[in-house]
Protein 1
Amino acid sequence: MERGEARRYLWRELSPLDLQALGRAPVVDALHLAGMLRIPTKKALTDSWTAATLEYLASVLVFAREEQLTAPQTSVVFALVRELHSRATRDAAPLADVVALAKSVLAAHARRAPGLPTTPATPDAAISDDDAVDGDDASDANDGNAPAAAELFSLSEIKNIMAFLSSTLFQHYKLFQLAASTPQPQVITSEDVLVEVPARPPPLADAVLRDEFVKSQARKLEDLNTMVEAASRGQALQAQLESYLEKARPLLAALTVSHSTAQLQALLEANVAEFCALYKAGVSEAMAAREAALLAKLAELPVAAPSHRSHKSSRAMSPTPGAAAAAAAATADDAAPTKDRKSSSKRKNKSRQ
């Protein structure tokens, strides 16, 4: 392959700007690649063969990234793979012809030994002039010097590229051709994917100190334990009530058979009245016993001893029942002469007047 023909692979499919955009992306997106290749998005999404082709071309860019190929090298490899894929699927070319084309293109872009001319008979300046006349100015503008423009790959890089083509396109050549020639049914499957949404942090206005938070959690735990205990007690009472009802069912059935509804009602009222009477009697006895105990405690209270300084005042402050009666009688006796004296004095005053 002549050098001018080989240079037509450079920047043919992807421009330097496209490769820069792909290099900045964390992953190679097939839809992004479809937009660069001017493939309608709807076709890329609905046509299974177009989607498979884009995935394969995206794997070429992933290979170039892993091999750390330069932008011109990536451009040539991508254009070569797309042409090989087109000849295999659209033109149904034999495998030998496709392999020969790949070898010739890579050989035309191989690096020469230093000091040797780039072409057998054409000087470097003449090559540049021929390319400018042919209209291949884009490659001249992006590659710099025309002589080194086609010398892109070393021998080890060519071996790696051929190994990639052998393990993908060449190894499954018949499969590619059959998939492209035979219409494939469109099968769309859907699967529910669980998307974990991170919980939103609580507002800062609801923040509390650690000690308060621990106390609140302890209170909640205590309330929960109380509820559990109450529920367990309720369940025990419910079980006990059910056992009582189970024991009372035969008696109720016997009473229903042997007595009428009116008799059962009268029997129930009599039992209730008897229970109320017993309850009242028990309450009365309990109150009487409590009153007697209270009076006994009052009688057992100690009497304060009289003071030496004020005998009368201490006797007035803590009198015994007998002393209180004697004091009342003495007061009555003292009050009677006083009244007689007042009446006699009034009579004397009247007689004098």
Note: Residues 3-121+130-181 form one domain.
Protein 2
Amino acid sequence: MKIKNSNIVCILALLLLVACGAEDNLLESLLLPGEDAAGLERPEVVFVGPATGSTGVTLNTNIIITYSKAMDPILTQSALQLQAGGGATSAEPFWLSDRSVQYTVSPSLSAAKRYSITIVSSLARDTDGNYLAINYLSHFYTLGAGTAPQVTSANPGLESAIQFGWGLNQDPVINFSVPMDPQATGDAVTVSGGPARFIRQWSNNNTTLTLNMQDPLQANVTYTLKVASGAKSADGISITSPKTYLFHTGTDTVQPALNSVTSGTFVWPALVAYPTLNTITGVSKNSAFLFDFSEAMDPSSTIEAISFDPPIGGQFSWLTPTQLQFQPTNPLVTGATYRMAIESSATDAQGLTLPNRYLTDFTVDDPLDSVPITLVEVRGYTPGPDTADGSFGTAGTITGTP
């Protein structure tokens, strides 16, 4: 058998490579990406920064990946894949050592994003030719992303009712679930309803805010304490559940009540508080409305709390400190239905609000003066042929239709 010279040359070259100790390089050259050179240890990711699950990462932070072995810089630096839901992901690599590579995102990390890191195993190769066994996964949250802060407790602490008996020198206190941004959160916390001058004081860990009153609050006033959506955690995350608390200064703890509503001479049945929609019929088109309260009311807030839809032109007037009358300018529309709202913003002379709001649909259909006249029947006699006055004629009936 004849052996071609070219085959002999190839065999001799292979033997020469083995003899020179180049078998590892030869084996590596025959490997596909993701395969390992025989007998060599795979590299691992031993450090990632920012750490997995980190929150509040500042936007100028670099990403650092450290491997357990010296890595092939050209191939491995392309192993990083970033995802940020529309945020910046272009990253420039810089090798800090043969094991650690730093990535700088351009122009910077994006705010309020979840960054997902993937180290692609088929691109992360050490200098011995070994690849990562599997893709390495990590994630972190930049400033403005992550868990939203919450108000865990407050004093005053009633959201659906008024806290009575608040001291004129008593300090409101708000507790948060996480450390807060003192400036942003302080600006988002307000007190309204009356004069209130205070200094905002934070606990050492910025989770408790005390409003230290510098002057006594005004007596017999309902104040509103608000925590608006501008309140932010130290990580820059906005609060998702703004809060509103009501508290009343002074000794009067009895809220006013709506005793009755009268239209003309018709005293309405007792109204049920919202969300029930009351329905009233039999209202006269010529009615004036009388609102009777259990206590002397604040004139302006009470008038502003009453409205009609569609609007009714007219004039409010106080008959007594507890009785308010509304006189329409023109008669109401016959057969029409109006909606009357009495809001809980109506306050008494001591600053206490109504405990409820009321919605009522009333129909203008008083049968005496507010419905069309309908001819029901006309009775008479038809003169007979032998009578001139019809007294003995045939009875007849005319019946009207609605």
Note: The first strand starts at residue 45 and ends at 49.
Protein 3
Amino acid sequence: MEYLTLCKQYLKAINAGSLPLVLSLFESPEAIVRSPIYGQMTAGTYYRILFSDTRDAIIRIRHVYEALSDTPSIALHFSYTCITGNGHTVEFDGVDVFELTADETHFTKLTIIYDPTHIGLTPRLPQHPGRIGAANLDLPAYNLELKFI
């Protein structure tokens, strides 16, 4: 599968709020997701929490970037609008950096980048039992060279 098709499927699954569809795009529900609000946890845990915390959400892709590295990866610059469980509307821009399987058919890892304090959110890291503790973090340095496509 071509990575742009994978990204479009991700956008469709997120906008539909479909946990099964989102998780089918990952190599495994145990794939790692790093989020400014929720910390590091498995994809299965992250999306269950995300969908339970939002009543409605829309992601619009602004730009797609392909990394010029040995590890297949792609970055999506996006605009995100959601209505939280308590009825507040939250809007922000961010970047999703996906690492892909060698055949580019599934995501293996997701790093989400945005400033949660800019939109009035406070990281809730200790509250989620699915979060992987800091002692277990293996944080590689990211040095992506991006080409515009």
Note: The chain has a mean pLDDT of 80.
Protein 4
Amino acid sequence: MFHRLWTLIRKELQSLLREPQTRAILIMPVLIQVLLFPFAATLEVTNATIAIYNEDSGRHAVELTQRFARAKAFTHVLLLQSPQAIQPTIDEQKALLVVRFPADFSRNLDNYQTAPLQLLLDGRNSNSAQIAANYLQQIVKNYQQELLEGKAKPNNSKLVVRNWYNPNLDYKWFVVPSLIAMITTIGVMIVTSLSVAREREQGTLDQLLVSLATGKFSLARRCRR
């Protein structure tokens, strides 16, 4: 039984790979997509430029500015000297986003009051700007959490987060498995369409429809796809 099944699978594979055009359609797109998509199809923002206009000379604004500069997503930090420089910075694409600290930012934080800051994004690159804004929000949230922990009573418990899969959080390792699944699904659809078109061109489709195909025959064709 298995010998006959393997013979049918081999016959279907030989029939599929016999034509050069079919081989090119099946192999070349897969190789190109697997090699290029991990570098292009990513939701990670790196090497971005951030501009900061600081009206506050307090320690909290300075500390957040330093944390923004140390973030992996930002490699360049522009320090603006006046509010009139904000719009040209965005219009000329000198920075992906601008952070503006108001004059009472540090004072409000020291008094444990609400301390808003302004964040201006470049809407022409909305996806990257929104991702970068999420990074900034996370940095501000972590800093706020540290301030609250300093005010509260000391706690001996400590939460340790450990990533077992992809410990370095390299986004390419998240993209590649999903690409393999999507490319495989698309490849199966392409092979099925090519098989039906070839059977119809050769005039054997009607013969297959009226023939008493056994389970081994159907399984062999599915293994080919």
Note: The mean pLDDT is 78.
